[in-house]
Amino acid sequence: MKVSLFITCFNDTLFPQTGKSAVEVLERLGHEVEFRSAQTCCGQMHSNSGYPREALTLVRRFVDVFRHADMVVIPSTSCTTTVRTQYPRLAADDAALLREVEELIPRVLEFSEFLTGELGLADVGAYYPHRVTYHASCNSLRGLKLGEAPKTLLKAVRGLDFVELPASEECCGFGGTFAIKNSEVSTAMLSDKMRAVLATGAEVVTAGDNSCLMHIAGGLSRLKTGVRAMHLAEILACTEAGA
């Protein structure tokens, strides 16, 4: 299958290894991966901050870039949620654009969703001999309703010791601009999340969204806990040959 990777501006700028890892996994599974260089931002930040006109420009851009793609895979739960839930609202006053958005959305899948749902896989040939816990982002839980998909992939990784995260349904406190506008509340929520992570005894905390991981990793690093944060794609890209 030919897969178009929408890497997201956040990953492209701050976490390029996530995109590289996603490509490694998909190619290892026998798929052709293309990166369309005209892609930019999904518009989430603009839409969430009250700038729908600016966000609409990016909706048009996304549609222009991917309208002929067989499948668009996104290693970000928040950006996938933006496309699925916000694009129809943003394009509501433009009938032609709305029609294109609605035609494209079924071909836009989050990374773990593509692997477990579209491909029907659990074991992707990964090997990662570490104790790992999983943080389910708000978008994965409530926006995409991914359920057990990410954990199914983790539990199939050879050598990996998976441990459930206490109070896993609770938000990490990032929420994009929420962490800036409501820093005290955000910090309190982060403290709860870090306590939960540390209670597992995990070496690594993973998730399907680097925005959450950046927030959690920052807190864990400041406390010098030694616990690392890694995107799910990075773990799945690891193999015994590369250990």
Fold and architecture overview:
By secondary structure, the protein is α/β, with parallel strands linked by helices. It has 2 domains: 2-118; 131-242, Rossmann fold (3-Layer(aba) Sandwich), CATH 3.40.50. The chain contains 13 helices and 8 strands. It has a 4-stranded parallel sheet with strand order 2-1-3-4, with helices on both faces. A 4-stranded parallel sheet has the order 6-5-7-8, sandwiched between helices. Strand 7 (204-207), helix 12 and strand 8 (228-231) form a beta-alpha-beta unit. The protein is globular and about 50 Å long. The mean pLDDT is 95.
Secondary-structure map:
Layout: E1 2-5, H1 9-14, H2 16-28, E2 32-34, H3 44-48, H4 52-66, E3 72-74, H5 77-90, H6 95-104, E4 108-110, H7 111-118, E5 131-134, H8 138-143, H9 149-155, E6 161-163, H10 178-181, H11 183-199, E7 204-207, H12 210-222, E8 228-231, H13 232-237
Parallel strand pairs: 1-2, 1-3, 3-4, 5-6, 5-7, 7-8
Helix pairs in contact: 4-6, 7-9, 11-12
Task: Using brief descriptors, characterize the structure shown.
single chain; 243 residues; alpha/beta; Rossmann fold
Short synopsis of the structure:
This protein has 243 residues and is an alpha/beta fold. Helices cover 51% and strands 12% of the residues.
Count of DSSP E strands? 8
Fraction of residues in helix: 40-55%
Mean pLDDT: 95
Shape: globular
Largest sheet strand order:
2-1-3-4
- Low-confidence stretches are none
Give the biggest beta sheet. 4 strands, parallel
Per DSSP, the total helix count is 13
